Amino acid sequence: DLKILVIDDDPFMHEVIQELVGDAFATIDHANDGAEALEIFKKNRDKYDFIMTDIQMPNMNGVEFVGKVRALDDEIPLIVASAHDDANYLIELINYGVDYFFSKPIGMSTIPDLIKVCANVVNVKVIREYQIMLEESQAELERQNQELQAALKKLSEVENKNTLLVEAVKDNKQYSEDEIVYLKEKSNTMDAEEFHAHYPTDLESKNTNMENIEEKLDITISKILTNPSVDTFQSIGYLFNTYADNILLISEFSNIGVAIQKMAETFYEIESLDNPALVEEILYSISRNIEKWRISIFVAKDADDIHYLDNSLIGDCMQVDMMIKPKEDSAEDTSGDIDFF
């Protein structure tokens, strides 16, 4: 499947190459000098797998040709066929990024080296094709993930409203008339601007409190690896718990607040971690996501759906909670606990 371009001003050299390896390539195109070859290459940049050129040629020599090709394409493999009196060009050609040098005259002894070049070119092609396949697969996975997230958002609209009602009944909470109207009207997806326009309580102070906590979170989380002590775990629990307290003051986000609070309380119970590096990584992810969530809803107000990160945040908190929970707790009766699904 390989296609090559051969440049030499000697017609006999083209005949030799065609005779030696003509059957081994899908295409061998020929040019008589650098200028002709450059025009061919410009019109067929994606056609060739590598180029073989002589140095001493009229109109445009091989050195100038290599420089102009490298200005257009810094990846295509280049082979220079050089005679002994071409040695003064070698440094310049190396600086241009020539991949291989063959000694003239080209003959049967050149074939093993040419086979090695072809094998390397084929390997590179296979790797590139594999990378393209991976990129396409990744793009498809991202597309499917976006569709899944969209479906989860629709599901969370009902789920979040049901949770609000459960919390209200459990806590015997008395909503104001404005809050009751708000909860009744906002059963569908709403964006951040709409949320701010209708929400009946002050949000600026809560945003400031959460921002201040975020500044301390990353520093404290980093101590999981440098100082994995009870004090570190309790500091993390305290910061996340304080963050959750602010969220729980906003009834629309009670699901997130409960999940963060539940995880934070578990940090008060532990003395060590089985996999501190993984816990640190997930906590950093939670920290970055809650900052992103806060900014998009309370600062930039550009979230199309204020619940767009609910499932991700709740899932991460549940994962950390299960990972760090002391093993002896697993044997206790948990029939009275509320489970997240």
Walkthrough of the structure:
The protein is of the alpha/beta class. It has twelve helices and five strands. The chain has helices at 11-21, 34-43, 62-72, 90-96, 111-171, 177-185, 192-198, 204-226, 230-248, 254-267, 276-299, 310-324, and strands at residues 3-7, 27-31, 50-54, 78-82, 100-103. The radius of gyration is 33 Å and the shape is elongated. The model is unreliable at 181-187 and 329-341 (pLDDT under 50).
Which residues sit in consecutive blocks of at least 5 with pLDDT less than 50?
181-187, 329-341
Task: Compute the separation of the termini in Å.
Answer: 53 Å
Given helix and strand content, the structural type is alpha/beta
Q: Order the strands across the largest sheet as they lie in space.
A: 2-1-3-4-5
List the secondary-structure elements in sequence, H or E.
EHEHEHEHEHHHHHHHH
Summarize the structure.
The chain is α/β, with parallel strands linked by helices and 341 residues long. Helices cover 62% and strands 7% of the residues.
Q: How is the secondary structure organized here?
A:
Blueprint: E1 3-7, H1 11-21, E2 27-31, H2 34-43, E3 50-54, H3 62-72, E4 78-82, H4 90-96, E5 100-103, H5 111-171, H6 177-185, H7 192-198, H8 204-226, H9 230-248, H10 254-267, H11 276-299, H12 310-324
Helix pairs in contact: 2-3, 8-9, 8-11, 9-10, 10-12, 11-12
